[in-house]
Amino acid sequence: MKRILTVLLVLTIAGCVVVPVRNSGKAGGGTALVCHKGKKTMELPREAIQAHLNHGDYLGPC
Q1: pLDDT at 42 over 80
Q2: How many domains does the chain have?
């Protein structure tokens, strides 16, 4: 628990975005919700999140 809190503190101080990741049985070990084009909530693998953020999608449900 201390390790998790330390990591969250360091990321907050560094100004990084903490991506809420869900554990799932999919390859890659986790997914997150992304609002795609402001219209559709998608649950994406961790590896696909940055590409979506780069073209204007945002984290969380629509």
Answers
A1: yes
A2: 1
